[in-house]
Amino acid sequence: MKVVRRLRRWDSFIDALKQKQHVMAAVILRDMRSRFFNHGLGFIVQSLWPFMHILIILIINTFSGRVAPYGDNPLIFFGVGVIPTLTFTYISRFMSLSVAINKNMLSFPIVKVTDILFARAFLEIVAGSITLLFMWLMYMSLGLSPYPADPTQAVFAYLATILLAIGIGTIAGVITAFIPMFATGYALMGLVFYLTSGCLFVTPNLPDQIAIPLSYNPVVQCVEWMRVAYFESYSDRLLSKEYLLALGMASLLIGLVAERLLRRTLMDEG
User: pTM here?
Assistant: First the structure.
């Protein structure tokens, strides 16, 4: 009898998992088609925005005569800092907008707020991966080596950045669902994150009175982790992997709890 009950529970779990997969796929496809030209191919254009953003920053810093403090080429040095910064910015920002933009989908009982949030996160992660491919092709075509000194740590730094972005994006998405104007405020906060992230300067070289307060910006930690992974001689005096991971997991937990507590209100408004 116990075996039969376990099998039934397992079948129910598999059915629920398949249902969630179908819902997520539907939300993702709708998001892809609705954002650009009412066609899924418009998603490719989405991947070009961050790439062009990165490219413009690299061109400005390279042709302004700035020398790379670490590494052999300023394109590599500045790229290493800009990539995690924009990865965080794009994922969290568009997650903050996702529920407000797709609120009408909540009229379907099967669709939950987390489906919309994580569908947007998935699309932004895929777009970010395509951007990385574009960057790799650009570096290789210029005869530059885009490979870090410690590839494993570089991957961990990128994944930690995604964790932080999803956590903060979940909180921002829930808030924006109630207060749409918060999206504008968060976009301005993204500019502050960008300017203080250290992607265009070397934070450990600043005086402690400035560097230590800046290090509490989690995006600074993302940049520092990536640079430590890329350049063997780069100082890790400000890097705290534990702080970044703890903040990423805590923000995700807070976002999920907030969504769970406010789910009924959100769906009623949808």
Answer: 0.87
